[in-house]
User: Fold this.
Amino acid sequence: MATQHPSSAPCAPAPSRPYRQARTGYGKRSVLGQPPSQASDFALLRERERYVAGYVDHLPDGAAMDIKSLAKDLPLYGQMAIGTALRTLAVAGHLRHVRCRVESSGQSRWVTRTYWSRRARDNEWWANHLAGEATGGEGSSTQEAPAPPPPWVPAEEPVPVPQQRPTADPAPDSAASSPAYVALARLGRLEPRLALSAGDCAALERFAAEWFARGVDADYLTQALTSGLPSPIGSPVGFVRRRLIDKLPPRLPDAPPPGSAALGVRPLLVECAECGRPGPAEALPDGLCRPCRTTVQAGTGAIEDPAAELPGGRDVKALVGSMRNLMRAP
Assistant:
């Protein structure tokens, strides 16, 4: 059971103090659904972590969250202390460092974001939230409700129109004709040897329509029908029918719409709060990879012992011995 520490930590800098803005796409990102700020926030944290958390909580979205920037704004602690504090806040469930690939202006780049929660969250909550971020939303539980159907309006009674007897075999209207019919009708104007009558165009329309159904346009169809013509063409309609059948292009698979590749899932990896190694959220519980988590649990980088950062709290002989071993290593 965690012990509540008295509020003896120095107050975090005022929120009106100028902050360092991160580059576009980087920096802090607050999660949705946070409780209002209270004086008891972060009361279960140690003095240093409570101080850093209070400052980070006051930062607006888009503010710089890297260790160097925070160390410059918080002069009470150096970069190593700030890094340890951020790791502790990640283990406590207040933040996650995330790498995300975004596309803008036709270019793809990786950005690093720090998702921040005033309330401590468990690993399952973070995994669900980041999964929602990967699909383009703000979390798995925040989905837009479908728009209500329009109100029903009674249809007007149709006005009776006198029936007229249609004329036999009406001439096709170019404005209402299909693209396939229009392409065949214009064929003779581009190549007189392939001039087709209105009846010929109507008979070949279904063959040309299959070309358009496979993604080609009128220019492609005309080029395929008029290229490499033999010198004598006895029957233009027979020749065009033969080419429409023999040169039918293959059907290509439908291309997914932009931004919907892999069901809209964008690459998103969580960074280890200790070493920065990326990985899926499920592989980094408490924001730590397996090697760093093992090290923390073993006590060599334990976050539970703040005296380990002070020179007097370490075993000097063991420290000197480890340094000698590192110097001997190739």
